[in-house]
Amino acid sequence: MSHRVLIPVELQAPPLLPSGVLAQRFAGHTMGTTWSVQALAPREVAAHTIASAIDAQLQRVIEEMSTWQPDSHISRFNRAPAGSWHALPEAFFTVLDAALTMAVDSDGAFDPTVGPLVDLWGFGPGSDQRRLPHLPDPRSLQAARLRCGWQRIVLDRTGRRVQQAGGVHLDFSGIAKGYAVDLIAQALRACGCVSWLVEVGGELSGCGVKADGQPYWVALERPPQDAGPGMVVALHDLAIATSGDYRRYVDHAGQRYAHTIDPRTGTPVRNVLASVTVLHRQCMVADALATVLTVLGEEDGMSFAQQRGIAALFIRRQGQGYQETMTPAFAAMLS
After folding, report:
1. Rounded to an integer, what distance in angstroms lies between the CA atom of residue 159 and that of residue 157?
2. How far does the chain reach from its first CA to its final CA, in angstroms?
3. Shortest CA distance to 289 belongs to which of 63, 109, 71?
4. For residue 161, what pLDDT is reported?
5. How many angstroms from the chain centroid is the CA of residue 122?
6. 62, 94, 103, 160: most buried, per Cβ within 10 A?
7. Judging by DSSP bridges, how do beta strands 3-6 and 230-234 pair with one another?
8. Is the model's pTM score more than 0.85?
């Protein structure tokens, strides 16, 4: 099957690779998923140095932002008493600040305080089940919704601290993996790597070219059983993130409930979209935007993306198949 090709509009001829670089590959498991790195590094940069730098950034995200770790910064904040103030480490502050900015811009389609609803619907820590024993009753749903709301977050940007309003349960699952990709990319640059492709849980970022002079070509994720023509993108100073309702879900009485929660209703997103893919220079932003557009749905999501010049691909279910729609910024990359 032939593939359509996406090339960044502002792509410039990459500089010549310096002599004496070696291709390095690394992979592992983190945050309940997999990660992988391809990198070109000078010979004098030892593989264990790069591996240690990657591991340090992954551990940083886990220690600060994983709700699955009871002693992480986010877990301690979520348990803290009302009115308490919490000094934030740099990474945590960066993600919370970005998440709140996205919440404001999306009018609540993205909300980092959605944790109580994530737990209620069976997607929180310790809930790796595929079947939901029973749907949340209206009283439980209302109680969880009352604990949510990004407007309840008081962030002191000057002092880099946040106040626990009482019962607030932060959840960065819609943005943390993308941020981890960005952190690893920064670490690779600091190690002296001249090009790389970083992937964490399906979110990717690429920089520069491979040893053969080609960019890092990546196939866009598509829903299972989608027989349409695929796409590949040149990840040259570019990141990609996909939100799909097939990635994680629970079943109840023959109905499937996807893991993406609509903060505005308190229930899992249920619309015609099977997946949304976003291209952006920052993987953290691409990750969050993919969630926003999924929550908004095809019509409102397309309007939101067009107004902001976002490169996005929407794939919706239609009958027994799929149909795609792309924003002008995405279509402009088609070669």
Report:
1. 6
2. 17
3. 109
4. 98
5. 20
6. 103
7. parallel
8. yes
Whether 283 contacts 274, CB under 8 Å: no
Angle among Cα 300, 297, 240 to the nearest 5 degrees reads: 100
Determine contact, residues 194/50, Cβ cutoff 8 Å: no
Both tokens of 14, joined, read 């990459």
**Which CATH fold topology does 74-163 show?**
T-fold (1.10.3980)
Confidence (pLDDT) at 182: 98
| 323 closest CA partner among 239, 222, 204, 192 | 222
Q: Where are the domains of the chain?
A: 20-67+173-204, 74-163, 215-335
Check if 20-67+173-204 and 74-163 are the same fold. Answer: no
* Contact of 170 with 113, CB cutoff 8 Å: yes
Confidence at residue 250, expressed as pLDDT on a 0 to 100 scale: 67
Give the count of alpha carbons within 13 A of 150, CB side only.
Answer: 21
Q: What local confidence, expressed as pLDDT, does residue 237 receive? A: 93
Residue 101: partners with Cβ closer than 8 Å, 6 or more residues away: none
Q: Is 232 exposed, middle or buried (0-12, 13-18, 19+ CB in 10 A)?
A: middle
The CATH architecture to which 20-67+173-204 belongs is Roll (3.10)
Find, among 134, 121, 144, the residue nearest to 248 by Cα: 121
- Known binding residues: 174, 287, 291
Binding residues for Mg(2+), by number, are 174, 287, 291
Fold annotation for 215-335: T-fold (3.10.520)
